[in-house]
Specification:
This protein is an all-alpha fold. The protein is built from 5 helices and no strands. Helix 2 crosses helix 3.
């Protein structure tokens, strides 16, 4: 059965986006795992799993998407009113537009 790109993004893309956002908040802004989790609306254990590579694929995105995720992390840090969901959806749309979703899932 062929799956919709959105289903692929739910299972692979969203966890990868969250992983990259958590890494950016920790590396670029020096947040603790707990603080990054709070900013992203995740549990600290989820962030721990992202960082230990138990969740979120590491090779899903190209450099352009990684840069966009960094921009999202800066927006989230700059303005507490920035909705993480809006930024996650923005990245999701960019990933789909760049056709990084596997062709057999289109």
């Amino acid at each position: 059965m062929q799956r919709a790109p959105c289903e692929y993004m739910i299972w692979n893309g969203i966890p990868s986006i969250r992983k990259e956002l958590a890494e950016a908040l920790i590396k670029e802004f020096g947040l603790s795992q707990r603080d990054a989790a709070e900013k992203l609306g995740l549990t600290p254990s989820a962030v721990c799993q992202y960082l230990s590579k138990k969740r979120g694929k590491t090779d899903l995105f190209d450099e352009t998407i990684i840069q966009e995720i960094s921009i999202s992390a800066h927006r989230i840090m700059k303005n507490d009113g920035t909705d993480v969901i809006i930024e996650t959806c923005r990245i999701c749309r960019l990933v789909q537009k760049k056709q990084t979703v596997p062709v057999d899932l289109r």
